[in-house]
Amino acid sequence: MQNIQSAIRPASARKRYDAIIIGSGASGGMAARELTGRGFEVLVLEAGPMIDPVRDFNMNKFAYESMYRGFGKPGWKQTEQWMQDTAGEFSSHFYVKDTENPYTTAPGKPFLWVRARIVGGKTLHWGRLSWRFSDLDFKAASHDGFDVDWPIDYKEMAPYYDKAENWIGVSGNRDGLWWQPDGDFLPAMPFTCGEQLLKSATERLGWKLIQPRVAMLTAVRDHHRKLGRAQCHYCGSCGNGCTVGAMFNSLSATLPAAAATGKMTLRPNSVVRHITVNPDNGQAKGVAVVDRLTREEIEFTGRVIIVAGSTLESTRLLLNSTSRQHPRGLGNSSGVLGHYLVDHFGGTGASGFLPMLAGRETINEDGKSSGIFVPRFRNLDAKTKQDRFIRGYGFEGGSSIPGFPGVARSTPGFGSDFKKNVRRWYVAPVALTTRANMLSRFENYVEIDPDGVVDAWGIPVLKVHIQHSDNEREMARDAAECSTEILRRAGAENITTLRQMTAPGRIIHELGTARMGNDPKLSVLNRFNQSHDVRNLFVTDGAAFVGAANQNPTLTILALTIRACEYLTDQVKRGEI
Amino acid sequence: MFTRNSSTAAPMLHSIHALPEGSEFVGTIEAGRSKFGFSFKPASASIENGKLTLRGRVKVTPPKGSPRTTDGVTATLLSTQGSTAQPPAPPASLPAALIPTPPANPGVLPITEATGYLASIAVIYFRLSPLSGTQLGLPLDLGAVQLNARLYSDSTLERELLWLYSALLMATLGPLPDAARAQGLLAELNRRYA
Ligand SMILES: Cc1cc2nc3c(=O)[nH]c(=O)nc-3n(C[C@H](O)[C@H](O)[C@H](O)COP(=O)(O)OP(=O)(O)OC[C@H]3O[C@@H](n4cnc5c(N)ncnc54)[C@H](O)[C@@H]3O)c2cc1C
Ligand code: SF4
Looking at residue A372, what DSSP letter applies? Predict the structure, then answer.
């Protein structure tokens, strides 16, 4: 991996940058690459610290090297990072400390907000699943009459998906499903034996089961090699930081590419408080920043401001950026800013063991980190239309073992018998979990906490209001039944059906709150992620989403970012910005 | 946890993260290179203007030297963060009328974890009444400090208090406020402070 130290240099408060990018995660990193590649001089402001992959990535750490076996000191998580559900002992430094970064919720309606505040954002430890949306998603309202369509369609997005996929490197199979469009993939990872059994069981039910599409280099193309990215060696430790750059993240790909142009200044530890506006015309002027470490307050100015702080941080920033011209928050003349919050939901599903696999030697189960995907099979057409709910869901899952054998937890006994038993069942677990579409509803929203709660830097925090509706509950019931049926058909035993839905936020696909649309009265951004109200303001992350679909969102975030950058370059050239 | 407004004014302390130790909330404050111990020990709880208000003693312990205290400090509820963890069981000694009954027929549809009768509180955010940094030996502006009380519990008393705070906040601010139940829960809370 190449390093980006050359880009970390003093930022000038006197200079007017061509673009200021807030955040260095998936979207911010891609915006930096796109704009520097087009000749822009950019300042990337990142709230969190810089990371040194050699020191901070723990790909090669084995759980048994720690006396806490990767779980961390008892009580650590509950006292410091209680909402950072996926943080482990070797990755906790990628995540925010909840002690410094509060948010509030309405009583009885919890929201789990997983955040990264570090150069690279959540891409340092994301799950890498990279799916395209189709017109079943972009035009969902035309399909079932609920809410509104996106102002874009698949045909327009396809070239940007191509660019994003090719650039980051996505492994997968061309499956020929119209509602789960294909791309130009790197070789897919083969299924394990258990996954083959799941596949034939799923197909006997008339549904599809395909290889996941993951942003991991199963082969290396020239542009990957130029950045020093190496092929994946299937160690399965992606969540602890990949030191060889096989997994896509901002640090392995987009930021080094931007740094190499010499046109990016990256300033870590820069918490943007609000966006400043020009009092004469209400356009964005720059940003007000507090240094995370020195607490110094600084202002920077830029011709274009790109907000890429992740869905809810971006919306928080806009809501906190009030002025005479924008009394309800920047770019919020519609009153829609903060509304239509969604997250996928999971929790429902099934798990069990495949007895026919017990006791064999491992083949490729050990360390495989991709699994399977059952693409949506409900409400695709008249034949699959459901009476009880609209939209649909997919199943993630698989039959492999990531390091620690989970079966050890439920295996009774001790000593050599215990070990034999764990080894026997080690290769046989199987599980399916739901990834489902939550409907975008106005009444699920965020606001600045009306009671005045602030974070450690005195910045007002969000209050989140979100809950599931009967549509989600009906879908969850269906998913619990269907996942159990797949496992049963595959011959699994000891099947447990999981029937509780995850709290909103737990799937870490929070989306919406600054939706795009053609009507400035009903949306915050136009079809190019540009604010309807403020021409030189773009929001390029998941806040722009109109709906959640049921697929992981990051590939769409990356594609939208590329598209927005192309458009804004054109606008700048034409003198429109 | 603080910002500087100008080079001459004392830096402003925005928030203190604290964990329960029995009925106290205990944390640390960093000022310059020094770490000070902090605790707030509630002596009473009441509901004022519909909001939970605690009254008690703030104690600040410097790295060297003796602690300084301020009595009669109020901690007024600002807001809460809902927990996504399993709530603890209700205190064993509680009158049955104070324990909400789970719905007899939860229905056939799945429910969302940690919602409704499974809900509890992860953090209570209080505003402490203005404190004097000088009096407490701290080189900080304590004019509007927020107490982030993270209700992590690992003793019976702490689990009981977590349950009581959660039930009280649901009874006062939840979708179905219940003033009588709130008073009963308040009495239980005060009993445990005594
Ligand atoms: C464990 C895990 C697994 C995941 N798996 C998948 C998956 O398989 N597929 C998928 O599509 N998605 C997955 N996601 C979600 C994915 O990581 C996000 O969709 C993606 O990273 C969002 O990109 P972003 O640029 O919007 O935000 P981020 O990547 O979070 O980056 C935002 C950056 O902005 C910075 N920032 C925020 N506010 C400010 C401010 N005020 N000032 C300065 N900087 C600021 C933050 O510090 C952060 O570094 C997963 C997430 C996690 C945590
Ligand atoms: S499995 Fe591959 S992508 Fe993941 S950490 Fe190992 S080498 Fe990197």
Answer: E
pTM of the model: 0.97
Residue A128 CA: which ligand 1 atom is closest? 8
Q: What is the DSSP letter of A574?
A: T
Among residues 71-100 of chain B, which lie with CB inside 8 Å of chain A?
78-85
The answer for residues whose C-beta is within 8 angstroms of residue A109's C-beta and 6 or more apart is A464, A465, A466, A467, B82, B115, B119
Structurally, chain B folds into a number of domains equal to 1
Cβ-Cβ contacts under 8 Å, A507 against chain B: none
| Lowest mean pLDDT, pick from A216-220, A519-523, A567-571, B176-180 | B176-180
pLDDT over 70 at B40, yes or no: yes
CA distance A326 to A239: 40
First to last CA, chain B: 32
User: What are the chain A neighbours of B85 within 8 Å (beta carbons)?
Assistant: 82
Q: For the segment A77-110, what is each residue's pLDDT rounded down to a tens digit?
A: 999 999 999 999 999 999 999 999 999 999 899 9
ipTM of the complex: 0.95
Q: What distances in angstroms separate CA A487 from CA A2, A192, A431, A481, one per listed residue?
A: 44, 15, 8, 10
Contacts of A106 in chain B (CB under 8 A): 82
How far, in Å, is the centroid of ligand 1 from the Cα of A124?
9
Write the pLDDT tens digit of every residue in B42-58.
999 999 999 999 999 99
Domains in chain A, CATH or no CATH each: 2-573 (3.50.50.60)
- Domain of residue B70 covers 2-193
Interchain pair A295, B152: CB under 8 A: no
Please state the atom number of ligand 1 nearest to the C-alpha of residue A316.
Answer: 41
Q: Which ligand is nearest to the CA of A233?
A: 2
Residue range A222-254, pLDDT digits in tens: 999 999 999 999 888 899 999 999 999 999 999
